[in-house]
Amino acid sequence: MNTFEAESAQYQKTRVAYWDLVNSKVLQPSSGYYRKRLLTAYQQLISEGASVLELGCGRGDLLAGLKPGVGVGIDFSAPAVEAARQRHPHLEFIQADVIDLDISDRKFDYIVVSELVNDLWDVQTLLEQIPRFCLPRTRIIFNFYSHLWNLPLTVAQKFGVATPRLNQNWLAPQDMRNLLEISGFQPLRTWAEIILPVSIPVVSDFVNRYIGKLFPFRHLAMANFIVARPTPELTGKEKLSVSVIVAARNESGHIDELMERIPDMGSGTEIIFVEGNSTDDTYEAIERSIAKNPQRNSRLLKQPGKGKGDAVRAGFAAATGDILMILDADITVPPEDLPRFYQLIAEESAEFVNGVRLVYPMEGEAMRFANLVGNKFFSWAFSWLLGQPIRDTLCGTKVLRRTDYLRIAANRAYFGDFDPFGDFDLLFGAAKLNLKIQEVPVRYRARRYGETNISRWSHGWLLLKMVVFAARRIKFV
User: Fold this and answer.
1) 225 beta partners
2) Does residue 185 lie within any of the structural domains?
């Protein structure tokens, strides 16, 4: 054993002895509120009934609080594992070193790494082990102490308020993101939680739910969070079928052009027109166009309700493609751009693709000034809410896999069902599932037929109310 290996072994031996001693004692009651807030944060990220692996699980309380369908906890401390087994007999706990873990190639929906990276000799070595336990859609969730809390925690330990700790790795979020990227992961979201880790009735919950999420107070938070996913292999060889959903209301003059310009993609493309109770002959125009183009796999549906969101959901429900695409019938976004969206989803470099109209110059009448200002505001609001950059929330071109849409639809009750456009509904749902969101710049054209179905002021007010509602369900929890 060389000097470096000896140092690593001694480091590990010291850690095991320390945590065995800590876990042989009764937990400090002062940590209860902090642990409760951590659990609340994790419950927003992990669906009940999922398969969850926790590395460094301690006594298993966090894992149990997530109510997994399959839950496995790993810890090198024998007293911790014994306590976990007694407290949560319905879950599986294994005494093992997370650096050298063998659990028969089992794979999980979520992997939780809570406050473990602070204590490791080599963080990168751990990260390089994790892909063995990952499915293609696995999410890995980390939380670790902020460096700003080094001194306060040291003082609290001296007064016996916090559990004494050995020397820690004080990783900044950027350090952790860098380690993830060089270890084969894509960081998806980074944020901070808990600026008041002790319980003061009413005050603590208010401060942590609201004040701690706002600038500049969020920089004082104790726990940094990162959600990541395994970097997919970008083969581009998989051929997927596509369903293009075209919601059409008073768009008679665009139908033939849409039929001609929508490209064939993947293993086959179906076009689903959803006609929305037009006052012109849009329905008849679609019927004529389908009859004239038997070579196209196309269908016509009558919208059951009102609003673009209702039409899109009807189209998605009827779709058979692996990939679902929304294309506005006004052709303000060129259909020829759709293969770019397809490629990102097929290669799995993205899981939700959103068009961006604000990069390339627009035609003169494409977007009125008030609409442009509104789009800028909602883009800022969404980027803050979702923790991922969203430049254009209201671009009608959105693309995702059907399997992910079904997951979003199954969780729709969490946000409510009052989005008449469907854009926010899909973005909220994608963020709640921690999907990898990517944006594609598109050239935005002026409409050449008919008038927009959007009311700037009444719909803008509705969108603002939706942002406030979503903030309560995503940010202020």
Assistant:
1) 143, 191
2) yes
